[in-house]
Amino acid sequence: MNQKTLLGSAAVLFALAPVGGVAIAQETGASTESEIVVTARRREESLTNVPAAVSAITADDTDNLVIESTPDMVRQLPSATLVNAGPAYSNEISIRGQGGGRLGFSEGSVGVYRDGHYSAGGGFGGRGLNALDLFDLSRIEVMRGPQGALFGRNAVGGAVNVVGRYPRPDFEFLGSLGYNSLERTQVEALVNVPISDNAALRIGGFHYEQEDGFVTLASTGEPLDLEETSGARATFQVTPTPQTTIRVTFENFENKAPGFAINGYRALRTTSAPLDPDPFVRDMNRVGYVNINENSGYLDIEHDLGWADLDIMASFKIRDAARGNEDLDHYLGVVSAAVDLISAQSETFDRAGLIATLTSPGGARFDWLFGAEYQTNSSEVMTSASGSAGPGAGLRAQLRTDSSVEELDALAVFGSMEFDVTNRLSLGLEARVQSDSKDFAFDRRRNQPESLTTEILGVRSNETWTRFLPTATLRYNLSDTSSIYGRIATGYRPGGFNTGIPADIPGAGDLIPYNPETATSYEAGFKLGLLEGMLNVEGAAYFMEIEDVQIVTAASDTVPAFILQNGVGSEVWGAELAMRGRFDLFGGRMNYSVSASTSDGEFQSGTMAIIGGSLTDLSGYRVNRTRDLIGTVNLVYRHNIGAGMQAFGATSYQVQQGGFENAVNSRTLDDFEMYDARIGIDAEHWRFTIYGKNLGDEIYVLQTVGNNDFFNDPRTYGAELSFRF
C-alpha cells in the first residue's frame, strides 16, 4: 500500500464514518454513560481532555463483550495487532507498526504497566497481559504512539496500563461460574471487607480448567491443548490520616498450557513429505507443556502535601517458568524413526521497581509533575536440546545446552508541565532522561556422546545506554468538550544480546549485541464531545521515524534460530478515527463504539540485514505489522423487563486486512473478520449470560515461525452465572 493509497484511505475514513474508541463506559445494570477517567499522563483526567490518542477498555466492556484475553483485547484497538509465536505466554501487542522486530526474551515495543507500576520483563509472559491482570478489572488504558517521556523504556509504539479495583468502605461479595464448549470450567470469587472506618481488605481469586481443546493427537485423537490457570490477589488499604492512603497488594498466578509443538502446525517435513494431516491435528510422539508460577507485590503510598501530591510506588515480581518434553523433531520437520529430539527451556526471573512522583494539585493555570524511577531485574534462562539425532551432523549440532544470565539496572528522572497560554490554548512539555545498563553472560555446551569433542562457547558483555526523551503538545479547546491538538513525542527500546548465535556465517560474533532503537512521532488530532456527551468523536494522523530499527531475521540457513539486527531506520504513517455514543431505541438504550485505522511504512534507504546467510537490502520494503485496515464495531443494547431486571444483547465485529508478517515481505498477514455476541439478563444481585466467540469460525494464521503455522482459536460458546451482594 503506497503513501497515496494510504492517504486516500484516511480521507475516506474521515469522510464516511468517524470510527472509534473502545470505551462503552456504562455502569452494569444502569442505562446512563459515565465519564471515563484515565491516567494517561500519570494523573487522573477525563479521557476527552487528554491531548493524545488513548483508548479505554472498561470493566463493563469486558463483561458485556467477549474479552477474556490479550488477543481479544488487541482486536478491540485501533492500530494494534497481536504478535504471537506459539504459546499464550508469548502474546505481545504491536501498536502503530512497532513490535515487528522481537524475540522471546528481548524488550517489547509497548510498555506494560499495572496501576502505573512497570510490570514487563522476561520471556514467559513478560510481554503482555495474563488472566490475573484482567481479574477484578476497572479499566485498561492504551496510549498509542511513543510514550517515552512519562512511561519510559519500551514505550516506542505506546503503553498499556491495567487499572484494578481498590478496596472500598462497604462490604461486597462477587462470584461467577462459567462453562464453555471446550469443557472449560470457570470459578471466580471476591470479597471486599471493611475492617474499620479507614481500612478495608479486598481478596479474591479464580480457577479455570480446560479439559478439551481444538488440537488433537493424530495417533489417538486425544485433545492436546489442555490448560489450567489459577490466580489470587489480596489488597489491603488504610487511610491513617485524611491526607495519606497506603495500599499493599500481593498476588499469585499459576498457569499450565500447551508448548510450542502442540500449537504449531507443520504441514510438511523437510523432505517435502506430509507431516501434520490438519491444522488442528499433530503427528508427534511427544507432548510438551509450559508451567508458570509468578508472585508479585505492589506498595502504593499517596500523600497530600497541600502544595503537591506525593506518590510512592514500589513493586516486585518473581517468576519461575519452564517448558519441557517438546517434540523438537516435529518442530524442525525432521520426523523419522532414527530421530527423537527433545527441547526444554526454563527461566528464573525477578524484578524490583520504585517510582516516586510529585504532582501539582491541579485546577490552576500551570500544572506540573516531577518523578524518578529505578528498575532492576535478572533473567536466567536455560535452553536445551537432547535425544537421538540420527546420523546427520547437522542435527547432532542441535544437541546443546545454552544458558544465559541478563541483568538490568535502569534509572530515570522525568517530568511534565502544562501551561494555559490563553483560556483556550495550552502548551505541554514532557521529558525523561533514561539510563539502562545490562550485564550479559552466555555459555553453550554440546550435548554429544563422550566419544565426540565437546565444544564450549562463552560470551561476557556489558552495555549502557542513556537517552533524552522529550515530548511537546499544543492543545486548543474549541469548547468545554472539544479540542484539537498537535504532538511531537519520542520513545526508546533498549538494545540487548542475541542468544541464537549462528556460528556458520562470517562475523557471527559481531551479531551478539544489538543497539537500541529510538522513535520520533509527529501527530495531529481532534476530540469532539457532542450532543451533551451522547456522542464523542476523535481522530489522529501520525508520522513516525525510527532510528536503528530492530529487525528480526533468521541469519543462517542451517541454524534454526532468530536474532535481532539493527537497520538504518524505518518510517511509519497512518490515521485513526473513533466514535462512541448512545441513543434511545425501542424503549431501551443502545451504546455503540466504532473504530478504524490504517497504516503503512517502509524501511529507509541503506537498511541491511543478514538473512539466510546473505546480506539483504531491505530499502523500500514495507514495515511489517502495518495493516491497511483495522476496524471494530461494538453494540450493546439494554432494556428494562420489570422486577428490577434488564435484558441485554451485545455484539462485536472485528476486521483486519493487509500487511506483512516479516521484514523481507515474503509472508503476508492473513485477513480476517470475526463476530462475537453475548445475551443475558441483569438483575440487582445476579446476572446470567450466554455467549459465542468467533461465531463465523474464522481460521487464520497469527504467525509463522520456522515453517510452523500458529492459528487463532476456532468458534467457542458458553454460559456464565454471576452474583453480587
Explain what the structure shows:
- This protein has 725 residues and is mainly beta.
- Helices cover 6% and strands 56% of the residues.
- The chain is built from seven helices and 42 strands.
- It has a 22-stranded antiparallel beta barrel.
Amount of helix? under 10%
Q: Which range does the strand content fall in?
A: over 45%
Tell me about the biggest sheet? 22 strands, antiparallel, barrel
Low-confidence stretches at least 5 residues in length (pLDDT < 50)?
1-33
Number of continuous helical runs: 7
Integer average pLDDT: 89
Q: What is the SS-derived class? A: mainly beta
Give the CA-CA distance, first to last residue.
54 Å
Sum up the overall morphology in one term.
globular
User: What's the total count of β strands?
Assistant: 42
What Rg, in angstroms, do the CA atoms define? 25 Å
How is this fold's topology laid out?
Layout: H1 3-16, E1 37-38, E2 45-46, E3 54-58, H2 59-64, H3 70-74, E4 80-83, E5 92-95, E6 110-114, E7 117-118, E8 137-144, H4 148-151, E9 158-164, E10 172-180, E11 184-196, E12 199-210, E13 216-217, E14 227-241, E15 244-258, H5 260-263, E16 264-265, E17 281-282, E18 289-304, E19 309-327, H6 328-332, E20 340-359, E21 366-388, H7 393-396, E22 400-420, E23 425-446, E24 456-477, E25 482-493, E26 496-497, E27 513-514, E28 517-530, E29 535-547, E30 550-553, E31 563-566, E32 569-585, E33 588-603, E34 608-611, E35 614-617, E36 629-642, E37 645-657, E38 672-682, E39 686-693, E40 701-705, E41 708-711, E42 716-724
Parallel strand pairs: 6-9, 13-17
Antiparallel strand pairs: 1-2, 3-8, 4-5, 6-7, 8-9, 10-11, 10-42, 11-12, 12-14, 14-15, 15-18, 16-41, 18-19, 19-20, 20-21, 21-22, 22-23, 23-24, 24-25, 25-28, 26-27, 28-29, 29-32, 30-31, 32-33, 33-36, 34-35, 36-37, 37-38, 38-39, 39-42, 40-41
